[in-house]
Amino acid sequence: MSTTATTRPIQDYTAKNYKSDLKPIWCPGCGDFGVVQAIYRALANIGRPPHEIAFVSGIGCSSRIPGYTTAYGFNTVHGRALPIAQGIKLANPDLLVLVAGGDGDGFSIGGGHVAHAIRRNVDLTYIVMDNQIYGLTKGQLSPTSRRGLVSVTSMYGSIEAPVNPLLYVLGYGAEFVAQGTPADMSGLAKVIEEGIRFPGFAFINVQSPCVTYGMDDQQLKAQKALMQPLESLNHDASNSLAAMGLAQQYGEKLYTGVFYRKGTPSPTFEGTARARQQELGAGTRPRAQVLDLFKLKK
Amino acid sequence: MNTDLVIGMAGSGGDGIVSAGESLLTAAAIEGYHGVLAKSFGPQIRGGESSFRLRLSTTKMLNTGGTLDIAVALSWDDFLRFGGELPVGGHTTVVYDSITKVPIDRIPLVGVQPIEVLAVPIEQMARETGGSERAKNTVVLGLMAGWLGIAREPMMAGIRKRLAKKDAEIIDKAVKAFHAGFEYASAHPLTSDRKMAPPAKASAKFVVDGNDLCAAAAIVAGCDFFAGYPITPSTEIMQFLSREIWKYGGTVMQAEDEIAGIGAVVGASFAGKKAMTATSGPGMSLKTEMLGLASIAELPLVCVNVQRGGPSTGIPTKAEQSDLFQAVFSAHGDVIRPVLAPVSAEDMYGITIEAFNIAEQYQSPVIILSDQEVGQRKETAEPIDASQVHIINRRVPGAQELEKYVRFRFTESGISPISHPGMPGGNYLASGIEHNEPGAPTASGEMHSRMNEKRLRKFRPLLDRRDLFIIDGPPDAPIALISWGSVAGVAIEALQIAQQQGLKVKLLVPKLMYPVSEAIYADFFLSVKRGLVVEQNHQAQLFRLIRMFVDVPSGMQTLAKSGSNPITPLEVVDRLKQITLALQQGKDREPSEV
Ligand SMILES: Cc1ncc(C[n+]2csc(CCOP(=O)(O)OP(=O)(O)O)c2C)c(N)n1
Ligand code: SF4
Q1: Is A265 left (phi over 0), alpha (psi -120 to 50) or beta?
Q2: Given an 8 Å threshold on Cβ–Cβ distance, is B260 in contact with A88?
Q3: What share of chain B is helix, strand, coil (3-state, %, to 5)?
Q4: What whole-number distance in Å separates Cα of residue B304 and Cα of residue B371?
Q5: Is the pLDDT of residue A8 over 50?
Q6: Å from A282 to nearest chain B CA?
Q7: Inter-chain contact A80–B263, Cβ cutoff 8 Å?
Q8: Other CB atoms closer than 10 Å to residue B202's CB: what's the count?
Q9: Is A275 at the interface with chain B, CB within 8 A?
Q10: Which residue's alpha carbon is nearest to atom 6 within ligand 1?
Q11: How far is B73 from A32, CA to CA, in rounded Å?
Q12: Span from the CA of A129 to the centroid of ligand 2 (angstroms)
């Protein structure tokens, strides 16, 4: 069971309650401004007090995001937000744990961790700000950069195929997969909220443009033209094969909304862990008893 | 009658070498003897050669001694693969399986003349009584019981227990194989006396190994979270915890790699729990970025490195002490991570508790630098009285402090109370990026310098922790003996022998490897003219580390050896004698080995 729904509400929260005093250092026009706004809104709708939220990120422009909220934040090292977030949630399953970062952070250096967070099904909400470029280090190729992209590390055009984030996580068995864009703020807030409410690992890919090293106005316009809400397609979100079919069109079409939400979510790691602890009588014996295992047995 | 015997045995996989050693140790321990059992394995996963060195004694000792008193070769090929680890000398009784049909004068022991060599039909007895050659180890147990004069009952009980899940018929055969060995020993007494003298006092003991005891001590210390990735020779720590920790309310996560392992531990610590990870050399290399993160975010955690031969994959199954430089220096930036080294498997209890205490007290990662020998050897230990244990928990902010909470507040001690998610009012931003007192990111050089000063200053009290050093011998002795980790057990014994021989030697063994306590070393060196640092690595890592911080007397030398061959107490005593002689002759300094 998700712990998010059970303890609320004791107070009405608004977006303001989640906004910290730190002033974002993002470039004017960066998509990430919209993402943090959508997160404030989603959190206000959920209504958990900020001190019950742990917000973890890696390193990148996008990973600055926890600092702009009033939650407990942890801006960690490049690519490793997911393991740290899992440690937090397993240590205290009562917390609401959010994870955020860039496409480089999540699918390049940290790509190996995504599969395992999904496999363990720890109840986290993972938001990737997918700008198809490295922002913080000033414009290098990212794992989601399209083939042919000219960047400071691909001066003659990228000769690698991009990772498809949606297909990647669906392939590993993620049970909640969605995409959003800050261009549709309320749609984005809604999928984030749904992701948080989903009792298990939830993945949200956000098309969050980098206006400095990524897209110019024309490219932005072109990207917008590819976007289409899934609602308009009559897509059945409980159908994983259909979700995969739609995800396959990443880049050609940018669907927004929920691609997949498993009808009967699997048990979470932390839920099963708690049950196991109780079953084995946790809390009923002094810790020193473990030393009895070393007694000489005749 | 003997008060001390070293037995070595080697065979191929399936010969049950290690379980024979464990049975012998357990039976002897029940009788009241002290023992240390080191295991060594060849590179093959299953079916490869393995060996043990077992030292039994009527008194307490912390190493597996030197040349073997009894050497048992189930096959000469396997035995010789451990040549350096199972040294045969002039006083050794050599026993081998007569099935190998090697004429006595052709036994492949280059350049040594053992005092007696016996071909024993071990496999034949095993087949005739136990029904298969798999009973060879049980026959050897019978031989040992007979020759050493160790009571048969505990050994038989051990055999029964080991085979508890098997058919009655198999157990019956095993007991017969044991008796066959015992009777053979009675009928063929050894020329040299290998009987053990009765133990001083038959006290109930523990039998421990370092890895299991580390895991258990972590539970006692309050550890509620472990994450790690399997790697020899550290894996038993995770295996123990994945069986036991749930019973005390904790969780184990087998991570996808070492980075994720320590990452999850960093997360659990941020969430307020005591947490630990364990690994060996290559895994330690992967963990270093996270160690830096935990240092700057001021999060407690314990990271165990059960050292093996390195670099890279090196020798996974054998001990070395070559990761000291790595433990101390491998994170970037100005940082202190306390590093603790246990001197024996039994010592792992105190070291692990201490590691958690230091981590919690100073809000820092702490490294335990164990090694394959400490981690995997089994030894007799005194029963542990956990009611006396002193547990330190991190300082959390009180209600008043939470009213205007500032996570990284500059305090006199450098330690600031730490809140964790769930604590109302304690909200803050932890980060690997430099931050100001509340936790906001900063690129200010001045703030960085002040924060560094705070983070480094907080460890100052550690430098006065004399209890983290073993200091022994006359305070005015002119000759120093220094060692660390599992090899310290050799130095401790060498000190005793040297003193009995009238040498004026004193001993220092740091368990706190870092930060280097300049005052404690300087104080120790006051009377010292010459000395020896003994360690199992090539570069003399401790020797050089000390010299970075302390004015070491110019007559200090090193006995530093890489490779898994044991350094023996007598080897150390010999060097101490040379040093004493040179001192008496007023020689400035004899050539050092490095
Ligand atoms: C171990 C390590 N390697 C490299 C870096 C440098 N680095 C910081 S952020 C980053 C990539 C940022 O791209 P992305 O994750 O897509 O985030 P964005 O800035 O675009 O939001 C890199 C390579 C680092 N901090 N740590
Ligand atoms: S560099 Fe790009 S991603 Fe980074 S803040 Fe600027 S616009 Fe945003």
Answers
A1: beta
A2: no
A3: 40, 20, 40
A4: 10
A5: no
A6: 5
A7: yes
A8: 12
A9: no
A10: A137
A11: 70
A12: 11
- pLDDT above 70 for A225: yes
Closest-approaching ligand to the CA atom of A212: 2
Position in ligand 1 atom list of the atom nearest CA A142: 16
Indicate left, alpha or beta for B202 from its phi (over 0: left) and psi (-120 to 50: alpha): beta
Q: pLDDT at residue A3 above 60?
A: no
| pLDDT lower than 70: segments of chain B | 104, 202, 204, 587-594
Q: What are phi and psi of A130, to 5 degrees?
A: -90, 100
pLDDT at B593: 46
Q: How far is the CA of A85 from the centre of ligand 1 (A)?
A: 18
CA-to-CA distance for A1 and B52, rounded, in angstroms?
51
ipTM of the complex: 0.95
Q: Separation of A214 CA from ligand 1 center, angstroms? A: 15
Instruction: Give the C-alpha separation, A133 to B414, whole Å.
Output: 40
- Tell whether ligand 2 has an atom less than 6 A from the beta carbon of residue A65: no
Task: Tell me B207's DSSP state.
Answer: E
Helix or strand or coil: residue B549? helix
A200 versus B80: the higher-pLDDT residue is A200
Convert B229-282 into a string of H (helix), E (strand) and C (coil). CCCCCCHHHHHHHHHHHHHHCCEEEECCCHHHHHHHHHHHHHCCCEEEEEECHH
Contact state of B268 with A90 under an 8 Å Cβ cutoff: yes
pTM comes to 0.95
Question: What percent of chain A shows pLDDT beyond 90?
Answer: 94
Q: Does A288 contact chain B (CB < 8 Å)?
A: yes
A259 touches A170 (CB < 8 A) = yes
Summarize the confidence of residues A59-73 as an average pLDDT.
98
Of A70-79, A195-204, B477-486, B559-568, the poorest mean pLDDT is in B559-568
CB-CB neighbours of A114 under 10 Å: 22
Q: Does the CB atom of residue A62 touch ligand 1 within 6 A?
A: yes
Report the mean per-residue pLDDT for chain A.
Answer: 95
Residue B246 to residue A277, Cβ atoms within 8 A: yes
Closest CA to B369 of B232, B535, B213, B485: B485
If residue B367 lies in a helix (H) or strand (E), which one and from where to where? strand B365-371
Helix H or strand E segment including B375 = helix B372-376
Asked if residue A210 has its Cβ within 6 Å of ligand 2, the reply is: yes
In a mutational test of the pocket of ligand 2, which residue from A30, A103, A105, A219 has the highest number of ligand atoms less than 8 Å from its CB?
A30
Please give the full DSSP string across A37-81, using - where no structure is assigned: HHHHHHHHHHT--GGGEEEEE-SSSGGGGGGGBSSEEEE-STT-H
**pLDDT value of position B536:** 97
Cα distances from B170 to residues B124, B152, B163, B173, B278, in angstroms, run 17, 19, 8, 5, 39
The confidence score (pLDDT) of residue B588 equals 52
Give CA separation, A33 vs A256, B164, B185, in Å.
18, 67, 84
B486 contacts B374 by C-beta, under 8 angstroms: yes
Test A291 with B248 for CB contact under 8 angstroms: no
Specify the residue for token string 């990443």: A250
Q: Do B248 and A285 touch (CB under 8 A)?
A: yes
* Whether A285 contacts chain B with CB within 8 A: yes
The CA-to-CA distance between both ends of chain A, in Å, stands at 47
Q: Yes or no: say if A88 and A125 are a contact pair by the CB < 8 Å rule.
A: no
